[in-house]
Amino acid sequence: MPKEILIIEDEQGILMSLKDEFELQGYVVHTAKDGERGLELARERKPDLIILDIMLPVLDGYEVCKRLRMQEDTTPIIMLTVKDKEVDKVLGLGLGADDYVTKPFSFPELTARVKAIFRRTEEHVKGLTRYSFGNIELDFEKYEAKKGGKKLDLTTLEFHMLKFFIQNKGKVISRDGFLDRIWGEDNVSVSYRTVDTHIANIRKKIEEDPASPKHILSIRSAGYKFVD
Ligand code: CA
């Protein structure tokens, strides 16, 4: 079964060239030029991945992302950003996007991100399926998490990062380790700040006191370590 990608982008030129390129690579591509139509197609077609521009007519990309996650739609989302300000928002708001690419981007760069997400999803289904620590319960098959018995919202990227932590329990993982494993070999444009921001977001969700974490520890000038 070919993977299906939904591209939501109002710039006709970018939309058409992405559609052509991804179709050449064997993906089935759906397109929408505004946020509302994008949401409809996401519900109807259930794509394997969504590429989502931020500045869009009717509903902007932030809103589309937020609404999908509110409906418990966990489809991986790559956001197309223009300014640093938007990158900060994508990373900081806990919108639930899995990755972002800054315009102007090259097609190989975007493809590398898309492939990294698909590879991650495939690796994810193998191995560890459930794990509990403290008052946190994780189900890696269903992408469900609970904290003290109550539902906890984690993005798919956060699940993948936690799984990587748990598989390396007690060992120090460097930021480069995360970049290689989570973002793939072609991670040149992903910064350490991205790794740090996602880890800060995970701590806010799982730690009792994110300022003095008990599970995800910072190891000075080396990286991070997970302990039960
Ligand atoms: Ca736009």
Describe this structure in words.
With 228 residues, the chain is of the alpha/beta class. Helix content is 43%, strand content 21%. The chain has eight helices and twelve strands. The chain has helices spanning 12-24, 35-45, 61-70, 84-92, 107-125, 156-167, 175-183, 192-206; strands at residues 4-8, 28-32, 49-53, 77-81, 99-102, 130-133, 136-139, 144-147, 150-152, 172-173, 216-219, 223-226. The strands form three sheets. It has a five-stranded parallel beta sheet with strand order 2-1-3-4-5, sandwiched between helices. It has a four-stranded antiparallel beta sheet with strand order 6-7-8-9, with no helix packed on it. Helix 1 (12-24) links the parallel strand 1 and strand 2 (28-32). Helix 2 (35-45) packs parallel to helix 3. The chain is globular, with a radius of gyration of 17 Å. The termini are far apart. Bound molecules: calcium ion (CA). Residues 10-11, 53, 55-56 line the site of calcium ion.
Number of strands: 12
Envelope shape: globular
Bound molecules: calcium ion
The helix/strand class is alpha/beta
Radius of gyration: 17 Å
Spell the H/E element sequence.
EHEHEHEHEHEEEEHEHHEE
- For the report, how would you describe the main beta sheet? 5 strands, parallel
Low-confidence stretches: none
Cα-to-Cα separation, first versus last residue: 39 Å
Amount of helix: 40-55%
Share of β-strand residues: 15-25%
Compute the number of helices.
8
Q: Please identify the oligomeric state.
A: single chain
- Widest sheet: strand ordering: 2-1-3-4-5
